[in-house]
Amino acid sequence: MSERLREGIALFNAGRYFEAHERFEDLWREAAGGARTYLQGLVQAAVGLHHLSAGNQRGGRRVLERGIEKLDVPDGEPSGIDNARLVADLRSVLEGGGVTAVRIRGRTDPSPRPGPPPAGDGPGDAVS
Predict the structure, then answer these.
(1) How far apart are CA 26 and CA 118, in angstroms?
(2) Any residues with CB less than 8 A from the CB of 100 and at least 6 apart, and which?
(3) Right CATH number for 3-107 from 1.10.3450.10, 1.10.10.60, 1.10.10.10, 3.30.1960.10?
(4) Where are the domains of the chain?
(5) Residue 128's pLDDT is what?
(6) pLDDT higher than 70, residue 87
(7) Per-residue confidence at 73, pLDDT binned at 50, 70, 90?
(8) Is 106 helix (H, G, I), strand (E, B) or coil?
(9) pTM for the complete prediction?
(10) What pLDDT digit, counting tens, does each position of 22-50 carry?
(11) In Å, what is the CA distance from 49 to each residue of 30, 34, 55, 121?
(12) CB 89 within 8 A of CB 111
């Protein structure tokens, strides 16, 4: 996993969705194929959560739905992200689960779900 992807994930997990979207977008511009589509999904998820956090329900939901479509692929992106969990958490937001329950985690991260990060868990610790 690239350092820039880790930075984007740390920003996302800290609730800094706009900044996370910018990091993901930089990676998206350089990517090709399935990785490009997956990164676009991360961009759209971050933008959607940013809009929802700012009270823009209609726009946030629309962008988040498009992001989920791109992230909801059988094998996900081979970056160590627990894709199935991410997609499930994003869908729970659309069902009224709240933005704070969404974090990008690694496939081996034992953190409980859904819910806010455990006390003392740093924003960059979610994916290694």
Answers:
(1) 30
(2) 15, 116
(3) 1.10.3450.10
(4) 3-107
(5) 35
(6) yes
(7) confident
(8) strand
(9) 0.81
(10) 999 999 999 988 889 999 999 999 999 99
(11) 23, 23, 10, 21
(12) no
